[in-house]
Design goal:
70% helix; 202 residues; mainly alpha
Length: 202
């Protein structure tokens, strides 16, 4: 199956999930919404659990791609970290799967695949990747922190400088996650990050 067809199936599954609990999402409806047969859907994902894992993997990748854009799009380190924190809060606000992945709080409405890898005999490379380990909230903190350090410290940074940047990046990521759980008031995410970074070297 072409990657675009796989994406259309994942889009259909995501749309179905927005409208009803995952337990009520039927494979036949996902296939029909994407304009393929139910057998094609099963050939691609193996099972409803496989579809859930692929959907979670895609949303995780989409969130991390947004982190990369935020880190690349702005000028100084503070602005890039602020953009990353704002992206984290908005992605979690707008996408229930991203919110669940970042917080570890999976509602009954959502699929909640095991984060550990599952046995995979899929001939589809993208599905074999989805059947691998899925990131935990702690994994996301480390992934975002490490990407931020790579973007901000650069390859020639001294070890002590990199450690300071890593600490600041981790604090910003954890602050952004706290804003997911308890949205900030006046000043928003940016105000909190700027306040934090005034006391932290970046």
């Amino acid at each position: 199956m072409m990657p675009a067809a796989r994406e259309s199936l994942l889009d259909a599954a995501f749309t179905a999930l927005v409208r009803r609990p995952w337990s009520a999402v039927r494979m036949v409806d996902v296939a029909a919404a994407a304009g393929v047969s139910r057998q094609t859907l099963y050939n691609e994902f193996g099972s409803k659990e496989g579809l859930a894992r692929a959907l979670v993997r895609r949303e995780a990748d989409g969130y991390l791609a947004g982190v990369e854009r935020a880190l690349a799009a702005h000028g100084d380190a503070r602005e890039r970290l602020t953009a990353t924190a704002e992206w984290t809060a908005s992605a979690a606000r707008d996408n229930a799967l991203v919110r669940a992945m970042l917080t570890g709080c999976w509602s009954e409405r959502l699929p909640s695949p095991a984060l550990s890898a599952v046995p995979s005999s899929s001939p589809v490379p993208a599905q074999r990747r989805a059947d691998g380990p899925l990131p935990s909230p702690g994994d996301f903190v480390a992934l975002v922190r490490d990407r931020a350090v790579a973007a901000l410290a650069g390859p020639g940074a001294a070890r002590a400088e990199s450690a300071e940047v890593a600490r600041s990046c981790e604090l910003v990521v954890r602050l952004a996650l706290s804003c997911v759980a308890a949205p900030p008031g006046e000043g928003g995410v940016a105000g909190l990050v700027h306040g934090l970074l005034q006391r932290q070297p970046v």
